[in-house]
Amino acid sequence: FANRDFTLPRLRDALRTADPDVAFLQEVVGEHRHHAGTRDDWPELGQAEHLADARWPFVAYGANAQHRHGHHGNALLSKHPLLGWTNHDVSNHKLERRGLLHGVIRHDDQRIHLICCHLDLTRWGRDRQLDRLRRVIAELPANEPLIVGGDFNDWRGQSDLTSAGLIDVHIHEHGHRARTFPAWWPRLTLDRIYLRGLVAREVQVLSQPPWPTISDHVPLSCMVELTSALR
């Protein structure tokens, strides 16, 4: 949502066209009292609920950054029942409020863990947050699949989760990290999807219109299947 234009209606249309079962979103506005009072097109609900509408009946939102008009953070939209969620505060200082939004969904009879993240701009800050993320992952049941997705703010490939037993889906399918930033000419590899206990299919960066005009990042998407051991 970094564009100066109000892109929320176009984002909702684009999400509906892409129609993912689960969406990982960052910098989602939960409340902004100033915009709500001055813009006729500002939604009555938080942006996560507005984007979800009836298409994604299960929503988790974790407020990270608080300001005098409201707050923003990460969100998960799901077509599958959301069994619960927790927002882990991993902020290193007050200027960059960050969180790990951990939700659990049920697909058929299988529990699947989702972690939506948005890491610091500095290497030092990201390393501390990755340590916390690895600890969260280590506490999850080993027999339950996991998807980690979000903005890692790492363009040099220094932040990685393979040591925690996860695979980077874009490296696995294409041999290199996904280039997602800036949206109008994607060159930097800031956004990632990692999997454990799942197989990635059809991994792609959505760089075609309308995505480059909606945000400063273009989305990363993939299909996933349960591994044979979990079927």
Quick overview of this protein structure:
With 231 residues, the chain is of the alpha+beta class. The chain has helices spanning 8-18, 33-38, 47-52, 123-138, 169-174, and strands at 22-32, 58-67, 70-78, 82-89, 99-107, 110-118, 146-151, 167-168, 191-196, 198-205, 220-226.
Write the layout of secondary structure elements.
Elements: H1 8-18, E1 22-32, H2 33-38, H3 47-52, E2 58-67, E3 70-78, E4 82-89, E5 99-107, E6 110-118, H4 123-138, E7 146-151, E8 167-168, H5 169-174, E9 191-196, E10 198-205, E11 220-226
Parallel strand pairs: 6-7
Antiparallel strand pairs: 1-3, 2-3, 4-5, 5-6, 7-9, 8-9, 10-11
Shape: globular
- Show unreliable segments: none
**Sequence of secondary-structure elements:** HEHHEEEEEHEEHEEE
Total beta strand runs: 11
End-to-end separation: 38 Å
- What is the strand content? 35-45%
User: What structural category arises from helix and sheet content?
Assistant: alpha+beta
- What value does the Rg take, in angstroms? 17 Å
Describe the main β-sheet briefly.
6 strands, mixed
User: Can you give the mean pLDDT?
Assistant: 89
Strand order of the largest sheet: 4-5-6-7-9-8
**Helix-residue proportion:** 10-25%
Helical stretch count? 5
